[in-house]
Amino acid sequence: MPRSVNAVASRARRKRVLKQAKGYFGRRKNVWTVAKNAVDKAMQYAYRDRKQKKRNFRSLWIMRINAAARLHGMSYSQFMGKVKAANIELNRKVLADLAMNHPEAFAAIVKQVK
């Protein structure tokens, strides 16, 4: 009896990986073993960087809030402490947006917490 290998599934798996490797440079796009390694590493980076993106944006928001708060004579930590004490429920994303795009609204918040 001939040996049974599920060639349909194997080919589909390889096609899926090679499709994901489309656009890579050199042999990474069309040689199965090289493409598989490249795609595996790319998926690891994608998973890691979905988490890092959240960290990076929070860091950016904090920098923007700090810069705007210092224009009004406060540090970031003082400002955020007073925002929490005043029960202003605006998150860092919204505060950073106000600081960048609506400085008069941010100034009103500063005046309210002082």
TrEMBL record:
Signal peptide: none annotated. It comes from the Bacteria. Pfam families: Ribosomal_L20. Keywords: Ribonucleoprotein, Ribosomal protein, RNA-binding, rRNA-binding. One of its GO terms (cellular component) is ribosome. Binds directly to 23S ribosomal RNA and is necessary for the in vitro assembly process of the 50S ribosomal subunit. It is not involved in the protein synthesizing functions of that subunit. Belongs to the bacterial ribosomal protein bL20 family. This is Large ribosomal subunit protein bL20. It comes from Flavobacterium suaedae. The lineage of its organism: Bacteria, Pseudomonadati, Bacteroidota, Flavobacteriia, Flavobacteriales.
